[in-house]
Please model this.
Amino acid sequence: MFDIDWRGLVVPLAYLVVLGGTFVTFSTIYRKRKAVESANLAPWFGPHLQRNIYLSLLHLEPENGSEKTPKVPDSVLRAALLRRAVEDIRRIIQIRTAKAACSSLLQRGSVGDDLWQRFQRAEKEVEDELRDVVMEANALSPNWGQIIFQSANEIAANTALREQLDDITKQTEHEKEWWEKRRAAIKSEFLKELEDESEKPTQAKSVAGSEDSEPVLVDTNTPSATPGGKKKKGRK
Amino acid sequence: MSDLDTFTLLPLRIDPQSKAISSAAGSSSSSSSTRALEAELAALNALHRSLHGLEAPHTVPPPPVPVNPKRSANVTKLRESGNNEYRKGRYAEAIKFYTLGLQMALTRPMWEPSQLVREEVHQLYSNRAQAHMQLLNWAEGAVDAEASVEAKRQGNAKAWHRRAKCLVEMGRFEEAREWVGKGLEVEGQEKELMEMLKEIENRSASSSSAASGGGKA
Model:
């Protein structure tokens, strides 16, 4: 009565097995790929050089020949930690400025999911890094953790300001040279006018230009007219 | 995530006397990463030295807000002396004082407020620009005024005006016009700058008409 027709069931069973097998294979491969991908996501920031230096100083190895591990004075460690905090400030500023842009780009679908993943990971990393720095700071000097980032923030701002000012003041020599040359050129061109009237070279030129049409001044205006044309070319 | 527990061990060496940190890798290899390391170590050593300059009770930089008034007083004094010389008409002396003041202000420890530095530096640069202008050193004046604007963009109409003036005196009308345009954007309808713009228009018009008149002849 309950005689099962195994032969007839072979086809549907085989179908189920194949279907299940496909699902399993697909999901394992897909997950593996996903995991590999997210592990291989490029980090948002490059290597943290200051952090590496700080930690390398903590784990300084004995030099060749001597057994003793060299002792790094606390002041050096403090300086290294402060450098690390400055770099963290730079990173956190970058993260904050990028965040709004990044999320709006993601909403519009202009950037892929992996970028957003990288971004969030970087954000979390920076947060952990800050906490770590505060802990280290407190260990090096009581209550330093509360103010180390204030100091680091000012250091970052001051460094940026100094760089900008240096960039500008560096031009001084160049500008001076240019102006010396320029003035010498103007002087030689308008020597006569400068002697006659102690006015500015441009005005002297305009006088020469306006008197252009008068036939009486033909002799004096030819030398002044040609440099005028030259000067205009020089400026452009 | 994994980054938090690991780090790259760098080959560092500490000089037992000077406590200066250096790279043990040797400076013969000059790839970009070693160069970055060297630069960072130089900055570290500089910071370490400047930390030594802290006054006795502090071993770490104090919070930025209560500022040590000594340096500010010195800067103010130098600026005042500069202003006095300027009023007496001794512009070269004034420039010397302003330059000293700038040195004093720019060597302020890095962890002290940058806003304060901007405040001091913009006045000094602006005053020095004015003194340079009195000596007809237009190039130096232009650079100083630009630096002043860089230190403080808003509420610094004088510096905007001074650079424009210098550029005009050097005959760089295009640049001057652009500069004043930027200045007007930042400062609003500043009267001084509006007048400057008019002056630029007048002078560039007269010079170009002279040049074209000369070209015809």
Summary: Chain B touches chain A through 68 residues (CB under 8 Å). Strands of chain B lie at 12-14, 21-23.
